[in-house]
TrEMBL record:
Protein's UniProt name: Transposase IS200-like domain-containing protein
Domain Transposase IS200-like: 8-137
UniProt-listed GO biological process terms: DNA transposition
UniProt xrefs under InterPro entries: Transposase_17, Transposase_17_sf
Record-level Gene Ontology MF annotations: DNA binding; transposase activity
Gene3D superfamilies: Transposase IS200-like (3.30.70.1290)
Length: 200
């Protein structure tokens, strides 16, 4: 049985997962949108989001799990009496989405691989790299030529002024300023060493 480390309060994580049996997680645009609705419900109370990307058969997230005190305050706002472990909130998200897909597409059983992947990001140098890696995923998979062309990621949000729950100002600070963020996304790069780190 595979043992996975629990998500620690106050820590940054790259969280990613894919569908079982090479199936698509997102079959049409409304699936992406509904996943984000469920994400807001289950994950916003327990984590800050810095980057995200939803592709056909997998997704990537960069989050910071809130401290216990921050989660307690959030749950008081939501009038929730019991605080569950952060990894269980992600499990609840995946279970709720699976139920919706099963009902909507007449399928049965699991949809996501288990356990979901998580990588602790405990070096500041990796935060900027992971943000760009996540935003460039659609490019690397051939869906577009630049992250700005892909609608189901946080890149467009990060360079706009529209209201968002993504921690945009913090993301910009990883790159010093918004112009440097944009400049850093002008060209793709070789992510092999980063992927080796994320998969280690």
């Amino acid at each position: 049985m595979q043992i996975t480390e629990p998500l620690e309060f106050g820590k940054y994580y790259h969280i990613y997962n894919r569908a079982i049996n090479s199936e698509n997680l997102f079959k049409e645009n409304r699936n992406h949108a509904y996943f984000l609705v469920l994400y807001n419900k289950h994950i916003d109370p327990i984590a800050e989001t810095f980057a995200w990307c939803l592709l056909k058969n997998h997704f990537h997230l960069l989050v910071r799990i809130k401290t216990f005190e921050e989660i307690l305050h959030t749950h008081e706002d939501y009038e929730i009496k019991r605080i569950i472990a952060p990894h269980q909130s992600f499990g609840n998200l995946f279970n709720a989405y699976t139920k919706a897909i099963n009902k909507g597409y007449n399928r049965h059983g699991a949809l996501f691989q288990r356990p979901f992947k998580r990588k602790l990001i405990d070096h500041d140098i990796y935060l900027q790299s992971v943000v760009k890696y996540i935003h460039y995923n659609p490019v690397n998979h051939g869906f577009c030529h630049h992250p700005i062309e892909y609608p189901w990621s946080s890149y467009q949000t990060c360079i706009s002024e529209k209201p968002t729950k993504v921690k945009r100002e913090k993301v910009i600070s990883f790159f010093q300023d918004i112009e440097e963020l944009k400049n850093s996304h002008l060209n793709n790069e070789n992510f092999n060493s980063l992927e080796d780190f994320l998969n280690s």
